[in-house]
């Protein structure tokens, strides 16, 4: 895997992680990591049910099989989502309360920390790529000029991905802090 692929993967993982953070509005992606017991097999919720957003702060989960309502409800209760599901016999309904100011600030800190972790992954990929280029130079596989060019390219890629991460952090923080 090339250093750019590693850097892109860090950005993609951060983006997916941010999608699971709720911002006071109902977002079906907060259920992406949730697994339910489907006949003894941990299965993604989306594989056993339809998730819809009937109102701004409500998620409705309609299982393909009626027997899954209780299983889905239990999986949500024991998860770390911090919401209480209800069921009407056919659907599991989740109402999201308005986020408190304190909770918003807490989430903003968490968003920043996850962003910094992604930046560390990008910088580690840069370090590994630079070390590999220096090894090639010492082994005589590439010239000093090629090494300098390669290091510039690696730094450009690093700057590009760090800027992308900063944009993600800024956008998600703004989304969380907007009442």
């Amino acid at each position: 895997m090339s250093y750019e692929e590693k850097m892109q993967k860090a950005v993609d993982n951060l983006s997916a992680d941010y999608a699971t953070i709720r911002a006071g509005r109902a977002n079906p992606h907060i259920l992406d990591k949730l697994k339910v017991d489907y006949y003894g097999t941990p299965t993604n919720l989306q594989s056993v049910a339809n998730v819809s957003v009937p109102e701004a702060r409500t998620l409705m989960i309609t299982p393909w099989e009626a027997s899954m309502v209780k299983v889905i409800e239990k999986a949500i209760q024991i998860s770390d989502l911090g919401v209480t599901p209800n069921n009407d016999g056919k659907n599991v309904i989740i109402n999201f309360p308005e986020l408190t100011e304190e909770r918003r600030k807490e989430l903003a800190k968490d968003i920043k920390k996850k962003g910094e972790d992604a930046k560390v992954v990008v910088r580690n990929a840069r370090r590994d790529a630079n070390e590999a280029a220096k090894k090639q130079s010492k082994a005589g596989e590439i010239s000093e000029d090629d090494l300098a060019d390669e290091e510039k390219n690696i730094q450009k890629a690093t700057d590009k991905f760090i800027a992308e991460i900063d944009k993600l952090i800024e956008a998600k923080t703004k989304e969380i802090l907007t009442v």
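The mean pLDDT is 86. The beta strands are 35-38, 41-44, 49-55, 58-63, 85-87, 92-95.
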